[in-house]
Amino acid sequence: GPAAIAYVIAHEYGHYLQNIFDMPYKQPVSELQADCLSGAILGQGADELEITKRDIINMSQAAYTIGSESHGSSAQRAYAVYAGFGLSPEITCSTADMNRLSSNQISDPVFKKMASQRSAYGVDLNKPQTHLKSISGSLFGGV
Prior knowledge:
single chain
């Protein structure tokens, strides 16, 4: 459906941005970063696309089941998108933060919940996007 198409296109656009900024490719960090950037892109346009944040999170988790561990765990991928939405108080889409995520060095209880349940069920995705950044701010940890 529309959420699947939007997620895949936004994820691949994230890789395009990595290429434009000459960011070296490293698994799973680059894949998680592309997921995070897809959250930043789609989190700002989900209403116009008539998809929900839950749809997008579900797509990130589904992508894990058809992909490989080289792209990060289901919880890591879902949390990367969650962070891109501007909902994480702990990380942005920066390479340093994606390194932390790929090593499970995240203390946010939401990440722990996603990892223990293997889903984002029960996670509040409609809270204010208080940590929302521009796409470049998400990528480089700025504003």
